Amino acid sequence: MTDWRDLRTRVTSALVMVPVALGCVWLGGVWFIGLIGLGVAAMGWEWHRMTGGAPRMMVIGLLYIAPGALALLWLRDHGAVGLANVAFVFAVVWASDIGAYLVGRLVGGPKLAPSISPGKTWSGAAGGILAVVGVGLFVGGVWAAFLAVLIGLSAQIGDLLESGIKRHFGVKDSGWLIPGHGGVLDRVDAVLTAAPVAALIGWHFAPGGLLWR
Question: Apex CA 72: angle with CA 70 and CA 73, to 5°?
Answer without folding.
Answer: 65
